[in-house]
Design brief:
Rossmann fold, six-stranded parallel sheet, about 40% helix, about 15% strand, alpha/beta, 17 helices, 15 strands, disordered C terminus, globular
């Protein structure tokens, strides 16, 4: 058997050699390489390599990836310019803004013209309270520790300060993978939103802004760091990943922003933040800004460690919830909550509504029950894949989905404009979460509405909320028609995530 296989192998080799010799003779006669030249052919006495097959090319790419060689031919790489190509032309003149007593115009601030044009494109004319108190110190380069709720304009405040510093202090030599300003955010959604705001406000600046976060697009984000970065926005975990791999160099950062420090603390990210700060230039050699919805003792200790002689600023300390948000509480039994929420969603006029529940399993049931009565809704839970999560949020932002159901954990970092109504299907266990929830409506000076359902359990959470806000709320009893279920409908256009519903049923059986 072995002799037979050896003979067969020898015959194959001899046949291949004969074919190569015949191809070589054809090349010499024609002066052109043969398409069947195997490992190569000779033309005019010179060896011509054969083109790689598809499989050979794939193997070559895999070897290149394992070796880490990004330019195997050692040819010069075209490094993109620091500033973006195709920066839109700025308007010839800035629009005049009327002087209003008690308000600070952005035109009154010493901001570069490219930044002023971006502000006017977004119809931003006057500073919010936190911007009025923070921007003078930030533009002067001082460290700031600010207390500000979500939706008060703090993001624009620190972005404007970063823009001015970078544009006033350009650098000619930069290292790939280095950043001049680092913004840390506790959630992917908040990081993405900050990046969007930076792109809109800085559309005329030509600055290169990058956002990095966990869960997806690791290679794409790594590619964005293969050049100098002006403003890097990211979550602590992904920032640490890139710094450990050597892709990101934090030793040259000149500005640090820690946004929503209280959320960082709640989510256990402070040790990661400390590791990141340890890689930056020391206090006094960088400008540091820290913003938090609360400034308790733990946050103040962090500020003392990270900031150098900071200015302590507070936005609207007299009110944690804006007067432009109408708060209403309905007293209902647990069995009446579904009927009331269906009545509210089918009778009230709203642009977008967010419904908050305390437990994922209850939210899954609510989405299923709403679908039975013809109310379409989207659902956010902690176990949804990041790519799908972003699609749901984009559908909500664009208005394709009008109703979004979420828990506090799943909704962390969500920043969506024009949410006109927030419904607390369950009151949260922590009063701080109540403030975060209803703070998603009534943004940018618009009016908003918060409706809360007080059942047997929710009534126990109300006193803590009243104590925190310093006011007493009076709940009302809904009319009978508001707590009467309508007839179920069969609407094929209403979609429910059946996979989550079936999983919920399995969990209950277990």
């Amino acid at each position: 058997m072995f002799k037979k296989l050896s003979s067969l192998f020898r015959d194959l080799l001899m046949g291949r050699a004969a074919a190569d010799q015949e191809a070589a003779r054809k090349v010499v006669k024609s002066g052109r390489p043969s398409s069947s030249g195997g490992a190569g052919s000779r033309v005019d006495g010179k060896q011509v390599p054969a083109p790689l097959s598809g499989g050979d090319e794939k193997r070559k790419r895999k070897r290149r990836k394992r070796s880490g060689r990004k330019n195997p031919e050692n040819e010069p790489v075209d490094v993109p310019p620091l500033n973006k190509v195709g920066i839109p032309a700025m308007p010839e003149e800035l629009r005049e803004v009327a002087v209003v007593e008690g308000k600070t115009r952005f035109l009154d601030l010493a901001l570069p013209r490219s930044v002023q044009c971006g502000l006017q494109d977004l119809k931003f004319e006057y500073c919010t309270p936190i911007q009025s108190v923070a921007l003078p110190a930030l533009l002067a380069g001082r460290d700031v520790c600010g207390k500000a709720q979500t939706g008060t304009g703090k993001t624009a405040a620190f972005l404007l300060a970063i823009f001015k510093y970078l544009l006033d202090n350009p650098l000619s030599e930069r290292k790939n993978g280095s950043c001049r300003a680092l913004v840390l955010a506790p959630t992917r959604e908040l990081a993405i939103q900050i990046h969007k705001d930076a792109e809109l406000l800085g559309k005329y600046t030509g600055l290169h802004n990058v956002v990095v976060f966990g869960g997806m697009e690791h290679r794409k984000q790594e590619g964005e760091l293969n050049r100098p970065v002006d403003i890097l926005i990211g979550t602590p975990g992904r920032i640490i990943d890139f710094s450990r791999s050597g892709t990101l160099d934090l030793s040259r950062a000149e500005v640090l922003v820690i946004d929503e420090a209280d959320r960082m603390l709640d989510m256990g990210f402070i040790p990661d933040v400390r590791r990141i700060v340890a890689q930056l230039p020391g206090r006094g050699k960088r400008q540091t800004m820290l913003f938090s919805a609360t400034l308790d003792e733990t946050i103040l200790r962090l500020a003392a460690n990270f900031l150098s002689e900071p200015e302590m600023l507070e936005s609207e300390p007299e009110s944690m919830v804006g007067d432009n948000i109408d708060q209403t509480f309905y007293t209902v039994s647990g069995d009446e909550k579904l009927a009331l929420i269906i009545y509210l969603l089918t009778h009230l006029d709203y642009e977008r509504v967010m419904i908050f529940g305390n437990r994922k399993c209850d939210n899954l049931d609510l989405q299923r029950d709403l679908a039975r009565y013809g109310v379409r809704s989207a659902l956010l839970s902690g176990d949804i894949a990041q790519e799908k999560r972003l699609k749901i949020l984009e559908a909500f932002r664009s208005g394709r989905e009008k109703v979004l159901i979420a828990t506090d954990v799943a909704a962390r970092g969500i920043h969506v404009d024009n949410v006109s109504l927030v419904i607390n299907y369950d009151l949260p266990d922590r009063p701080e979460d109540y403030v975060h929830r209803i703070g998603r409506t009534g943004r940018a000076g618009k009016r908003g509405t918060s409706l809360s359902l007080l059942d047997e359990y929710g009534s126990y959470a109300l006193p803590a909320i009243e104590e925190m806000l310093g006011r007493e709320f009076h709940s009302i009893f809904p009319e009978d028609e508001m707590v009467t279920l309508p007839e179920p409908v069969s609407d094929p256009s209403v979609s429910v995530d059946r996979r989550h519903v079936s999983r919920n049923r399995r969990n209950r059986r277990g």
